[in-house]
Design brief:
By secondary structure, this protein is mostly helical. The chain has helices at about 20-50, 60-75, 80-85, 95-125, 130-135, 140-165, 180-185, 195-225, 230-260, 270-290, 295-305; strands at about 10-15, 90-95, 175. Helix 4 (about 95-125) runs parallel beside helix 8 (about 195-225).
Length: about 300
Amino acid sequence: METKNHTNLKEFILWGITDDPKLQVVFFAVGLLIYIVTLTGNLIIIILIKIDQRLHIPMYFLLSNLSCTEICYITTTMPKMLWDLLSETKSISFIGCFLQMYFFLTTAATEGILLSVMAYDRYVAICQPLRYTLLMSQSLCQCLVASSWAIGNLNAITNTVFVFSLNFCSSNKIVHFFCDIPPLLHLSCSDISLAELVTFIVSGSIMVTTVSFIVLSYIFIVSAVFKIQTTQGKVKTFSTCASHLTVVSIFYSTAIFTYMRSSSNHSTEQDCLISLMYTVLTPLLNPLIYSFKNKEMQAAFLNMLRKK
């Protein structure tokens, strides 16, 4: 990889999900609905946790931060994608592409780390209930959230700088709906081996660390659950973790599949489909299955409605 970028391109063209005009209208309508539902659901979570004193505990503090991250996460890609579905040019400036990749990688890494922190919170609540207040203090939770954003920023800066230090001297058509690492590496006419290595090491280390932390937490959780005498107690404990595991599984399986492969193994159509899973589905799932199935959140929501 060269240390100086000699790219003459001033803009990229985002190919998008489809070039069929009829399908573009359908995708726009569906995408707009998903975006509105995602924003509304996550905003409701943040508001409920803010106004209901019963939800002022570490679990919901982390959940509100996850919802905030989800809003930022989907907003880095969805508005531009919706605009391009109805636009003829579908262009994005060089600096716009740089910024989109930076903010996307920041929020994606932050979300992954927050999910691991939430797994630790569940471990403490189930396996160390008497020490929960001590181990999950407000100052520690704030520190963990701040660290998540700091690591997310470091991940984004490193990957984005390396990718945009490459040469893009031929086609400017990105066969994707947003500026992501794999399609830009595929587009470059430089030697991308170092950029791939950096992505593998930086993003891979974050993924491996957080996934290992989540798996380890749930090993201890499952071990503790099996020690519970009553079936009802086991079911109740497992139900508090099931939604979190669903979000974690979808987010990490698709992210690992996307970023932990070499560019020669990437299919552009396949990448677009997989990307939709972790850029659109996981932010939508957060309010739908992680919170509104929670009885305390339901009670807080009904209480808010009664007050209104």
